Amino acid sequence: MRILSRLSLTLSLCLTIAACSGANTGLHNIQFSGAAEAFPADYQVRARRYLGAEAGLTVAVSYPRLTLGETALSPKRWYVCLRGLEPTGSAPDGFRPVLEIAENMMSAQSRPGTYDVVLVLRASGTSTAIKGYDSPLCREGRYEVLAAA
């Protein structure tokens, strides 16, 4: 009985450590400002600018959505997701945090192996690209084929 009790305690600790290895809510994702940058009506132009020579490919772009600002006091920023691009690396196939696995099981929109590029559109006209696989930001987007220039 004593061995079973220790085994149960050890298993509980292992599960707790595994759960803590995932994305946690913290100070880095708090947003105090309710303001948002102006809607980027030129989001398709900016996406084509980012694509450059790859602009001729059949790429889907999502309708812009809001995300957190750069700091807790900054206005919220807009982003779009690009799909249909060639991956720059291979899909992760190693250890994944327990919380990520649970989130993927619960999310009807989860598409493991889908390569996404999140394009954060800044009010200054610049953009930042975040490349990855099955980004939670891109799961529920409305997509349209990126129109030719």
Describe the structure concisely.
The chain is α+β, with helices and mostly antiparallel strands and 149 residues long. The protein has three helices and six strands. Strands 1, 2, 3, 4, 5 and 6 form a six-stranded antiparallel β-sheet that branches.
Task: Chart the SSEs and their pairings.
Elements: H1 2-19, H2 43-51, E1 60-62, E2 65-67, E3 77-83, H3 98-106, E4 115-121, E5 127-133, E6 143-145
Antiparallel strand pairs: 1-3, 1-6, 2-3, 3-4, 4-5
Protein name: Lipoprotein
Signal peptide: 1-22
Keywords: Signal
Helicity range: 10-25%
Largest sheet: 6 strands, antiparallel
Element-level helix/strand string = HHEEEHEEE
Mean pLDDT: 78
Shape descriptor reads extended
Sequence stretches where pLDDT stays below 50 over 5 or more residues: 18-25
What structural class do you assign from the helix and strand content?
Answer: alpha+beta
Total count of helical runs of at least 4 residues: 3
Topology, number of strands: 6
Our estimate of the beta-strand percent is 15-25%
Distance between the termini: 72 Å
How much is the radius of gyration in Å? 19 Å
Could you please describe the fold and organization of this structure?
- The chain is an alpha+beta fold.
- The protein has a domain at 32-91 and 111-145.
- The protein contains three helices and six strands, in the order ααβββαβββ.
- Strands 1, 2, 3, 4, 5 and 6 form a six-stranded antiparallel sheet that branches.
- It is extended.
- The N and C termini lie far apart (72 Å).
